[in-house]
Amino acid sequence: MKKLIQRIKRLLQRIFKRFASNFQQTLPLINSRPLETSIPSVPPRWESGLVLVCSQCGNERSNSFHPTSKSSTASEDLENWLKSRLKFDGLWGEFRVVSTSCLGVCPKSGITVVIVSNRSGGNSPCLIIDPRSDRELLYSYIKQNKK
Questions:
Q1: Residue 76 lies in a domain
Q2: Which end of the chain is more exposed for a tag (fewer CB within 10 A), N or C?
């Protein structure tokens, strides 16, 4: 009886080893198949870039140039200024300015901005912007990404 049990164990071990090796050989084939999904996708409206402005940076209330925005933060002021400037120059639509939550950079002073574009190839640096003195420099940097 002991011999029979040992034989069954060895046989089961061989079966499991073969199954495991066959499974590992077919695993890459499973992963290389394209995903079939029903998630719809649309091309974005912005052609030249997406400007992400961290809403957590500069959370202190700013002394804005605009009397109507006394309760806004420095990041909100920068975001609104960029939107207005892009609209004024007729570039709204090619570029989009979006407020985002924390980007994980957390500078001691300044606001984190990321410009995502087709030209960046997925490698977009985080820019630390002084919301007042660097506005024009940021805007010229954004316009460099124009298609």
A1: yes
A2: N
